[in-house]
Amino acid sequence: MARGATAMVCLAMASLYACAKESCLDGDAACEVASPCKRLRFECDDPFVGIRRLRSGDDRPSGSDALAANGDYVLENSQITAVIDALDHPHYLAPTGGALIDLTRRGVPHDGLNQVYQASGLLPGDAAVYDGLRTIEGDGFAAIQLRGHLQDHPDQPIYTRYEVRACDPGIRIRSEAINLEPDPAVWTLADGWYWGGHSQLPLVPHRGVGFGYPDFELDSATDAFRSVPYLATLPPGDGYAAYACVPCNARSLSGFFDTAISSAGTAPRVVQPREYVIYERFIAVAEGKSVAPAADIALEARRQLFGERWAELHGRIAFPRGDGEPAGETRATVRIDEGRRRDPAAQRTPRTQVTPDDAGRFSVRVPADRRYVVQVDAFGRTAASTELEVGRGRADAGTLELPGAARLLLRMTLDGSEQQGLVLVHPADDETEAAVTAQRFFNFDTCAPLLGSSLGGSPACNRVLVREPVSVALPPGRYTVYGTMGPFVSIARHSVELGESEQAEIALELTSMPLQPAGTLSADFHVHGAPSFDSSIPDLDRVRAFLASRLQVIAATDHDVVHDYADAIAELGAESRIRLMTGLETTGHVLFDYVPGSDVPQVIGHWNFWPLPRDAEAPWRGAPWDELAEPGLLFTRVEEAGWSADTGVVQLNHPWETAEFGRDRGWAYALGLDTRADLPAHFDGSAQSLFRRKPEGAHHHNSDYHVQEVMNGTDAGRFQQYRAFWFYLLDQGLLRPGTANSDSHGLADGVLGMPRTLVYSDTSFADFDPELFNRAVREGRMLGTNGPIVEVSTLDDQGRRRTPSIEAFAPAADAVLNVRVSAAPWVPVAEVRVIVNGRAVMTLRDELSHPADPFGLDGVLRYEGEIALAELLDGVRHDGWLVVEAGAALMPAADLDCDGIVDTGDNNGDGVIDGDDVDVEPDADTPAGDAEIGSSGCLDDVGPMRDPPRERDREAPLYHFGAVVPGGEPAAFTNPLLFDLDGGGFTGVSR
Amino acid sequence: MRCDAAALCTLCALLLCGPARADDAVCARDGGMPSGPVQSTLGEDELGLARRACPRSELATGARGLLVADYDAFYGHIRGSGFVWGSWAPTPERELFFTLEAFRYQQVISSVVADAIGVGRLGLGMTQRVASTEDATLGLTGRLVLPTSIGLSRDVWPFALELGVTGLWRAGAFDLHGQLGAIASAALSRGDSDPRAGMVTTAGAAWRALDWLALVLDVHLGLGYAAALDVLALDPGLRFAFGRHAGAELSATLPVAGRERALLGALLRFAWSF
What we know:
The complex is a heterodimer. By secondary structure, chain A is mainly beta. Chain A has twelve helices and 60 strands. The N and C termini of chain B lie far apart (37 Å).
């Protein structure tokens, strides 16, 4: 009887348990997701809270990463403003809207979020697809509730509620998903934080991590997971918010962390059929230049949620007299790790980071009752530290003395007047280099010296934008200071030795040279600024960099959004000095199956479009959604957004670029083309034939782009690969002119305008006509260069002078090729190559002259001569093409995977390129010689290409070039001269 | 769920009506040789696994494995379970049985990998022969799977019910066996209880090649539980008899069509019959 009663009670309890349904997990269409983080309560004077849908003219959050558009939803209170994108406005990695795209303190223009979206794993099919949205308002709160499912799993519903309560310094989120499939799943129900690679830097409070994240690949992602009490971010620079995330329904959040993307949510676990997972979190936003303002909120949230005490730790940094403040993050920043000073970094737990105020004071919250190491970094290196026990009260770390910094006052003139230029500071000896080489918090560029965050404005890394005199702090040492203003201006150099608290004034006087060919405009068709998800350079410094490069025409091609830099241009009064065409770089994020035979879903790489109208209030600022479309369909979408396929330009970017984070960056490489085989004219089901396919619903073929990048940035290896692909297309009779662009994302990567494209157009800078200019671009009347200027011409059979373009002609019987190569004295030109039908038929070395003084003005002309065309075209019977290149000799490379494109260098330096070179990181200091191609058969894994060895002789011409074009070697190319020798038009070259 | 309750009542009514006349010849034991359908299965909780028609008292232990490798979906699933089976035949017509998944280890592989280990679920059931001839017998079988898993499911208590008609026709060294049944499952949960029901049928033959060796091949069909066609599978097996009481089965389940993603299920089972 008793057993029966017990059973009845158990049954009743189970029934009650089952009847009390949790939130929306029972699938009720009218359900309401439970309010998240109920134990959190913040106080303030103004209890305002609201929700609205953005309409034209409405106030909206602003900042470099702000994406809010008409139709999006704003949740706000008196403290913060958050934006959830409308379902039909998806951004970046999310397949639909419903993601958090902007989050700012109310009224502060500092949005630094690209996107926070929900997923259950790392695969595209794990992302949440939302198809329903409702707004909810109640007493003291406003919320948005989303309904959907995991992308590849219709039977795995997911619900998310974003909620803002009065006085919250952030947004509460609850996501819940249930596995109604018959198979177990493995889930980490999480937010994907898309940082983009050059933006917010997440601090991971886990032993041995902090800012030093474990490396991982897709197949080892689980090993990279760490459980942490909170996540907090370091903003990339001034004008950006800091963020923190605290789990509410679990003591820790679990995820992997990286500068490109982080996942933070529930720990990965097997989710049995019918099981569900709930993830509640609070995302805080704070104003400040450090992790601490956001981490402080996170610790207060944990106190309320879990009763964890925090204590205040404060201290002071003492700067030596004469140090020349103000300070800043690079001069002095404080990292606070839980642990002991004697512990190696791998055993400490980084907790927070703060940049002291101008008086050197700092104050942060840390978990109470623990021991901490407080260490001060100056110029990226530890300069002072202390250790203390922190109880529950206020703890004083005391005063930490910093060694003195040196200071440079920089001036720059061009032809005697102050002009915008770029200064690069380099160590003058190995000892200084060893002493000052550093990274910002172990990430991003390695700089010597580190003058400022490589992500932000000037000074960045070792570079400074200078117009009026600029003062910069730097660590003591011996330095060489270079000034540059692009390839048509001399460079200046000064050496200086500075001790602690010493200051020097340097005036860099540059002189312009008549190097730019008459009738050309100097252009860069691939530049990024802060609106790009992977850039954080402020608009003002971006425009200053435009000016310093002395480019004349810029195509602003930010990733996925149209931006015009108009405010910055106006503020700097630069309207008369640059011609900017608004454009776009479409950047595939959402993987899909389109390549026949591919084992993995892919994207279509990156494409630039210009000019394109900008709409400041529209999604993507006027650009179309660029996901899940083959190129031909993408062209059609951009056309519908206002780009003209008749007068505008679409450019194939870095065609042979590898994938990054599983996202293809180069269309040709993504297809896995075999350039030893012909391109089919029609789609036959093969990946090779996809190149020219016309996708369903498209007005264009995939191959209907106008130009391709032959040079992108300064990477010599990529230049070899891109040109090889370009040559292949010329051979195929697919005529797409070549361009040269910097693809600059900031001040610390490639120097803007290096390389650049010189366009022979029928318009002038003064009366710039974009249509005429772009027509010349489409016709290929241009050359690409990062220094050398190559001018070629010949005569056709009508006696007319012909210069490179994609217009074919029959050459005169006795025609000669006129070649003129010039360059500024600081640009060494080692050889001139004449390439016919993909083969170097002539290489000029001894015939070249070399200037005596790289810092002078003489010796500009390196070669001028005539070469009989018949000699060059010997053996060419039907059609032919000719390209001239100038610059450094190409590094030996071989095609080891048998696709016709070189992929591997002599990385082990044994004089043979074979399988032994694969995955070998070459020693940058080892001289490279000639190399034979070994017989390895066709390999699956290949690369890397070998970069030219670093020039160690600080007086060598190549060293000076590398000092102002970091990572580069001189290179230039012409567009082709197309010879129609058989009178049948140029149809390509028989391979 | 109402349908399931009705089916349960029907089964109870049949059982209460009393056994049909049993002919011991058809269910005569061949020493320790296992009988009836192959005991390998793909489903959790033995749901849909056909039951032998002839009662016997037996204690058995063994292990099951499952392998799913869906490359296109970037999904893998490995499951290994240790079982204890027991049955008691109080009369030649009736068998009471239980199945305890004593432990289960699962690893699910996708972009992230996780594993789970815990006690699986307990099934309790009964088979009642309802008709017999000299060569054949027909029985009703039913089983209830109780939500006893610990460590595998959080906040969710799945249970299941299975009803079927099982039969055996013996012809010399050959046995033909089969089962037609219905399965249903749901969960006590604060989320969707997700009730599911489907039909399963198994048909196969065993050939006693030697006194100590039998070969068996079944065809298993599942309909309507998770898809219109859940699975069409072949179940080959080897059976061994070790003297009068001991027996073993080594068998596999190989899906050939349907929604089922598994590549393979396998079983190794040792039994001692009394």
